[in-house]
Amino acid sequence: MKTHRTRILAVFFTILLAVGLAGCGSSGSDKASSSGKTEITLALWDANQKPAMEEMSKAFMKENPDIKVNVELTPWDQYWTKLQAAATGGNMADVFWMSPEQIFTYAQGDALLDLNDKIKTDKFDMTKYPKNLVDALKVDDKQLAIPKDNSTVALWYNKDLFDKAGVSYPDDTWTWDTWMDAAKKLTNKKAGVYGMLAPNNGQNFTYNLIYQNGSDFFTKDGKKSLYDSPKTIEAVEYGTEFIKNGYSPSIAGFSNTTPDQYFESGKAAMVTAGSWMNSEYLAVDGLNVGVAPMPKKADHGTISAGMGYSIAAKTKNPDAAWKFVQYMGGKDANLIQSKSGAAISAYDGTQQPYVDKFPSIDAQVFVDAAKYGHSSYMVPSRADWLSMEEDMMINIFSGQISAKKGCTELAKQINDVIANQK
């Protein structure tokens, strides 16, 4: 899972979407190609997942010979630009991957088909997916995508470094105290080895700490930031302690070397990273790793977020697109996806093939993390305060401002944004 969102882009493309879609019409019934088949396109951004998407599409076409599916890959760095341009021009792919971070922008531009009526008519069972994933793909109670996968975060560790330091491997009994103590024992300044990597990264690190401490980002009504709550401040303070104690590289150190580079080169004993890193870490020659649940304070809290399948609001093939999305969101397709190892399928009971794909680690940890996963930081106002959060967290993690002062000021900035929204 990757993040890419700015206020300027969100506002700019919301306007473009509204203007572009205003003049775009739809027939309401599917259009057949010259071959007599209805052709639809699935747009995606991950080359590693394309083979699985093609296999799933072929299985669908075998069951639906009157529909042809074209799988279209666009790299992440170009995906959203291309999708936004297609929306303004009225020629979006029929079906496309949608991120919870981007869904508010496209919802404001009326670019996504509301699936509620189709779900109700066909009795499509949404209880088969984690509730937080279903809710993350909703805007104003409109279901704008069907969950595809679930990405969670866990604690990766270097077994060789643990063995050398005589520290027991992490497990589900670890607490924040255990974690900090282990980081101290694993840090070897002479060898240039850090016990723990504590980057200024919400998705991979800080957000998880906030959930672990029993806090959240907003009150339940979404109208007030909780960044200034004692538990949130405590969580951010805890994250910075790894740096202050010298157990983690500084912000300056991370500017020259990424967390993945530290970990993959054997210069760090622990890192919090997502289920999407399995293939990369396990492919590093000589890197002997394991994975454990997130250490616990009030809970094992972790980010739990995935993408979904959306349908263009103005697709010329609404029936075929919905039939395809139903299949892609169903059990058979999710089993194919899990077997590929590229992602943890969101559909209940289809995760075991994913676990079996990685026998050298306890991949079940990532599946179980969904039980205490959160995605509540995905809110409509996020685009308007994300840059504020990024700037403040840099100041906090670099030691320029205390966690208490920085988080309190950030909460005020976010609340001002919410108050000024119409």
From TrEMBL:
CDD domains: PBP2_TMBP_like (cd13585)
InterPro entries in the cross-refs: Bact_solute-bd_prot1, SBP
Organism of provenance: Listeria riparia FSL S10-1204
Record lineage: Bacteria, Bacillati, Bacillota, Bacilli, Bacillales
Family the UniProt entry places it in: Belongs to the bacterial solute-binding protein 1 family.
Domain of life: Bacteria
Gene Ontology cellular component annotations, sorted alphabetically: cell envelope
Main location: other
Location of this chain's protein in the cell: Cell envelope
Presence of keyword Transport: yes
Protein name: ABC transporter substrate-binding protein
Keywords, ordered alphabetically: Signal, Transport
